[in-house]
Every structure is written in structure tokens, then in C-alpha cells.
């Protein structure tokens, strides 16, 4: 019994080993077949990729040649066809032209066109045989809407303030010549005052009052301007007399002119009015200085 059991175990072990060996062989066969199939698929993919690349290259070449031939006329293309001995395949339906042949023909045509020199027109070529003939104009330029048939000389406008033909401005002569305008302004101011007294509408009265104030302020400005002009004119006369005596001419600065103007103004105002103005100026300056002080020191003062 023991011997049979051992034999049975040995036989079962050998069967298992054989089965394992067979399974390994089958797996190896399957692996090899899978590898062969994957290699074939890769080769097919590579072939398809190469074919697609070749088609793309051909399409790009065709597009480039078409761009080169875009500016060529049909007559030139017909001449190139005749020179190259190309057959007209439009009527022959059975014959088929390959893409390679088309590419070769187009390349040859493009190279021939590039080699041919462009004709440059000279001035003599552009001249008209008769002056009454119309001129040749490029069609690429836009035509103007308004055409100048008869040339008209443009009017030259001039400003008398900056033109030498008008001469130099003489302020004294101008004021004497147009002095009557001041009389008109005074009469208008008197009329406005009378209308303002009689006016009952408050809105209209407010308008008249504003207009009157504007005219009064303009008159004051004119008087102030005349005062300054008279002052500086007198100063120039004094300086001219000193120059005649042998002194070197001296021209006042802006700051000196301002001081001279203030001195003249205060002299004409009088002592009381000057004191009043100085007091106002002093208060104004102190108010400005107090703004820069802290609150505690302001209350202490």
C-alpha cells in the first residue's frame, strides 16, 4: 500500500510539472504573437504617418507655388506652357496627371518667372506723344471726390496785430483817436442806473445790476492801466534825460516796477487810507500765520 501511494504521488507530481511546463510554453507563444502584432501595428502607423507628412509637404509646396504665381497673368502662363511643351490635358478625360507632375511643372514655371527681369519704365516711356492726351495714372491710387479743374490761388489771410504792413501800435494815438468810446460807456452806465431805479421785476433788476457792476469794474481797470502807463512813461523820460547827460541806461526789473507802482498808489491814496489798508493786510497775515499754529497755542494767544 505504501509503495502504491508513493508511485501515485510521483505520477501526480510529474503530471503537474508537465502541465506547468505546457502552460509556460503556451504563455511564451502568446507573448511572441502579441509582440509580432504590436510590431506590425507600429509599422503600419509609421507608414501612415510618413504618408501624411508627404501629403502635407506636397500641399505646402503647392500653396507656396500658387502664391508665387498669383501675380502672373494668364498670357505669361500660356507662354510658359508652350515653351515647356506641356500638353493640354483638359480635353483628354482618360489621361490623369499625377501630383508630382503638377508640382514639377509649377516649380519650373515659378523659376522661369523669377529669372525673367521686370521691365522698368523710364520717364521717356511715360511721356505722352501729345500734350492733349490724358495721362496714365495708376489704378491702385484712390480717386479724389473733388477735382480741381481750374487752379485758384488761395487767399492769404493776415492778422494786423502781427503784420508789418499795419505798422506799429501807438498807444497814445490810439487812445486819442478812440477816446469817444469812453463817453459812450459813461452814457450807457447812466442809462443802466436810471433803468435800475425804475425796474420792478427783481430778476431783471438783478441782471441790470450785474451788468452795471461789470462795466464799473472794467472802467476801474482801464483807469488803473492808464495810471501805470503814465507812471512808467514818466520813468522812461527821466531815464532818457539821464542817458543824454552821460549815464548808462538802466532798465527796471519786474520787482522794481512793482515797488514803484505801490509807492505811487499809496501816495495818491493818502495817509488815512494807507493806514486802513495796512491794518487789513496785517490782520490777513496774522490769520494766515495762526493756521500753522497748534490749537493750544491759539487758545493761549
Automatic annotation (TrEMBL):
Where does this protein have compositionally biased stretches of type Basic and acidic residues?
Answer: 1-14, 122-139
Q: Where in the cell is it found?
A: Nucleus, Nucleolus
**Which region ranges are annotated with the description Disordered?**
1-62, 80-101, 122-142, 219-239, 278-301
Amino acid composition bias (Acidic residues), ranges on this chain: 23-57
Q: Name one GO cellular component term.
A: 90S preribosome
Q: Where is the composition biased (Basic residues)?
A: 279-301
Question: InterPro entries of this UniProt entry?
Answer: RRP36
Q: Which UniProt keywords apply?
A: Coiled coil, Nucleus, Ribonucleoprotein, Ribosome biogenesis, rRNA processing
> Which biological process, per GO, is one annotated for this protein?
maturation of SSU-rRNA from tricistronic rRNA transcript (SSU-rRNA, 5.8S rRNA, LSU-rRNA)
The organism's superkingdom is given as: Eukaryota
Pfam families in UniProt = RRP36
Q: Subunit info?
A: Associates with 90S and pre-40S pre-ribosomal particles.
Q: What does this protein do?
A: Component of the 90S pre-ribosome involved in the maturation of rRNAs. Required for early cleavages of the pre-RNAs in the 40S ribosomal subunit maturation pathway.
Q: Which family does it belong to?
A: Belongs to the RRP36 family.
Q: Which PANTHER family match?
A: RIBOSOMAL RNA PROCESSING PROTEIN 36 HOMOLOG
Name of this protein:
rRNA biogenesis protein RRP36
User: Origin organism of this chain?
Assistant: Choanephora cucurbitarum
